[in-house]
Amino acid sequence: MFALTTHLMRSYITRHNCLSNVSTKRLLSQIKFLKDQQLRRDAKLQSIQEVVLQKKSETNGNINWQQLVTQLTQQRLVFKHNYEFDLMAAFLLNNGNDCHKVDHKLFKSLVNYIKLSPNITNNCIAASRYCHFISHFSDFIDSTDAQLIRQTTDVIINKYEDNKVADQVAIDCVIGLAKSSKDNCVHAMKLLNQLKSNDKNLIISLIDSSIKHKLFDHTFDLTKKYPDFKFDDKMIGKLVEYINNSNIGFDQTLDIFRNFSFNLVVFETHLKDIIIEIMKRFEFKEMNTIVDRKGLCSSCGQTLDKLSTEDHQNLIYLFKDKIFNKQNDLMMASFSEYEKELENFHKFIKKQTTNRPLDLVIDGLNIAFATHADIVEDKSQLRKYVYRYDREVIDRNAVEMLLRNNIFDKFDNILMIGRRHMKNWKLLTNLIWDHRKQMTMFYTMDKTRDDCYTLYAGLQNPNTYILSGDFYRDYLTKLEIKPYLFKRWLRTHQIFIQNKKIMIYPDQFEYKINISKDNKTLHIPFNNSDNTLINWLCFQKQ
Questions:
Q1: Total domain count for the chain?
Q2: Confidence band, pLDDT 50/70/90 cuts, at residue 73
């Protein structure tokens, strides 16, 4: 909770960099207070842990918990009315990494004492914490413990199904349920639909638990249902080791690889030898290969997959539905003049693409401001310093960047999106006029979010590039259930500007496992040692 709160506060300061010094100091003071509070609590829990472990050593594990709680109360380490919370939390320090300090005897002794507490039977939050605690020790859980977690979870979910206040309690219970045993993990999957939650920690925990209990069908069902919750490296490693150490056949292995492909998995380098061994088992020969920007493999001559037509159409529909409409606050289209501008842009795009699609869409302001600015004192005194750009400098910078990269030799139908004040940029206006057969300009109103127009125009054809240095983070949250689809499109279609001068073109294919239609050729991607490049292995059936 502390980490989340401080992250939100720091994000607020970053986004609202015009805050006064006084306001900023208040927020930073609050962050420090929360941090100190968390450190004090961690120190208290560490002390509780040390007292319990010392008593365990003195009594050979035969702890009189009533006497120990009295001792901890006198030392003001726990409160008598809710000691259960602190006893459990003491061994879940460091994100649960202290669990190894609890052996089977201590675990059974502790849980048998805690579950007798009236809080566990009468308080849903205490019950969910109890389930969460014992789920961390799945090796020690017996059938009685597993049944108790299951019953507690069912009661809490049924009782609070329509109560949003208790959502997190139910989520914690389901996470604990999935960890506790294989059967309970299957039951947790069924309860997921009842929860109607897209909580990230819940989905990741269920995926992790399904891998732990080797319920791989459930793992892949979850990744298909929630494609934007990606496998982490630990999960990928567990699945690869499972394939290597089991006797599953080629068809089952391909099913797992197809799920990896669906989730755009790129393997870490340390898994390369294991995957080579797996493929050798099925009589495949590996070859290091080079894949060019268009996706052509130098070893076998096959072309790797691009973003599918279906995915591209889904993204266009989603973008129009969620962003490019007059109800969206990103468009600033709440007034009649903005609505008129939207209509004009639709007509403009239709006219420009009548005979040929757009090759390139340029975010005019973005490339123009990709230059060094003067740092001057802020006359408004909201900040100490501000960046100041000279109009003639950014006008010249935009023109020089376009000419330096020979865009008129590479693209036939170019659209630049700008704002009305850019009509006064003489050099850019002259450049567009000189190349009017290849390049056109659409001027939005000065308060319009021109990013939306750039993206909308770029989405109209699957072969259109966009030129911009923007990361478009606002649109990821707006696109709700499909942010990763938008990221995939950007990665294969966005040209960046390197060192404020050179255009860097993206690869036109997806970084994922490619499986040929006859299942006789696989292309598998690996990160290099410093995660800066993608290396490919081409596997061919011998």
A1: 2
A2: confident
